[in-house]
Amino acid sequence: MFEFLLRKLGWDAASRQQARELARQVEQLLEACDRRLCLLPGHQHALMPGMRIAQSHLATLSEKLPPALELSLQSFARDPRLGLLFAGPSSLLDVLEGSESLRAFFSSASNGDEAWALMTMQRSETARFGVAMENGELRNDVAQTVVSFDCHGLQLPCASEEAFRTQSGERALHVLTAVIARQLGLLEQTRLQLEAELGRLQLRRLTLQSPSRIVVDGQGGDDLPDTLADLDRRLSEVRPQLESLRELNSLEGALDTVRHVLEHPGDYFSLENVTLLLNRMGIKCEAGEDGATTLQLEELVLGRERPTRRALMPVKIHRESIAELRRQFRD
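Above: the chain sequence. Below: its structure as tokens.
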């Protein structure tokens, strides 16, 4: 009964250890974002509930990843998806040999001969007019969308799929930390831009009020309003925005920003399922077309303002597969 009460109150040994770990992660996050925030009284109390929410959200993301795709020369022959993700086997070899994390993994004999890793890519879509058959006729003005992938990278090589899934969740917290740091940086950047614009608006206003007075705008540019009415209208927009940003860029405001991101992680860090139907040339197809390949992956969306997107695919790499690719394309 007494032990149950301790667990209920969070005073048992396991709960205290969990609280210490959570506090450590909060400190690490603030050190990476803005270490000055560690000096604010009550920062642990403010951020620990959000850290629990963020961890719960991030822990579910690895479950959404599709099954691992094998990267090997044989896979090119039997799995058409590799022909869509890479220009050819030689480009696959370039990615494998260019990965420092994969090289470090296989340099340790204790890791074994097989690695599970997360492949990241940049997906792009290009609209063009191409040649295609329509209603039995060959036409060269058919609107097409070509999907391509580049900027491949390999992260989190692990000796087992179970370890890979576990580390993916832990890695997600580091990425969310980077997102928070970027969010704080964007707020500061916007504040500086508005500060500069405010100064230029005030100089322009002096010029329009006293045409005989020479006022030099050291930043140049002809993007400012030409009339007092338009200037005052823009000033009335800039001043409240700037005041709000000044509050957000204070230490207390920055802490509130960190807390908001932690408590709403899905708005800043999410996975979106992407299903593409492509022919062997990477051109988007309609359902039922001959030769179409279904490519399913997850796309990581980071940030809310100016979000960045990266396509994700779990992969499996065998040490011998790299050696075979080298024999074919390096020797």
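The beta strands are 69-70, 114-134, 137-158, 269-278, 293-302, 308-318.
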